[in-house]
Amino acid sequence: MSSGSDIRRRLIRIALAVASVFSIQSALADCAPPAKAKISVNMNAAPVVQDQKWSRAEIKDYMRKRGQSIRPGYDSVLGITESDIEPKARLQFTGTPDRTGTYCVVVQSVTVVIDWKVTVHIASEYKPGSCMYKVIDEHEQGHVEIANKSKGAVQEAIRKALESIVRNTVVASSMDQGATQLQADAQAAFEKAFRKFHAGLEQRQAAHDTPEEYAKGRKICGDEYND
User: Fold this and answer.
1) Gap between the Cα atoms of 188 and 186, Å rounded
2) Are 42 and 113 in contact (CB under 8 A)?
3) Which sequence spans correspond to the domains of the chain?
4) What is the mean pLDDT of each run of 10 residues along the chain (227 residues)?
């Protein structure tokens, strides 16, 4: 039994809005973030999927292809839980030019939707309702619970990253140039926040894979363990 999580990232989509009001002073001197940029972070969580399309050997091979290590002494992989976390962000910028054509570009609003899907894979050798299926599923549901309890953490990590982004301003020769710079800054902040979140989630998932958990199949189901 094991766990895994897979974070997929999409490029941040941007929407540009050019302010119609021209500054009478230098954009460099007047460039400031909006008093209150709008930040929205929403979770789109799908129902947990139970899957038995893979055999034990196929689950193990999948883990190895992903670069996920299998602990020494626990070479029998009976199940795996995957967390597919895919944030999509939409940033809207406002650019105010001065009479020289220099733009003050700021983030006006950020909307993030996090697609969240958890899939439990149980080896096809074990029939639903059998002793081993129940033991494996009980263990994997522990991983599901850990993943679900992490929803608030990922939302908070993203929100904090966004709060730093909406305080940024860029003075640029064009609207596109300023928006591109802010987009790059947002992407970097997202990457940093997700690396930290993902590392914490992996640690919590790994802590669930104890020798005692792994021994339950043989202890409870006896010959049905069949390793």
Assistant:
1) 5
2) yes
3) 2-225
4) 44 40 46 82 94 91 77 68 88 83 87 91 93 93 93 91 86 88 87 88 88 84 71
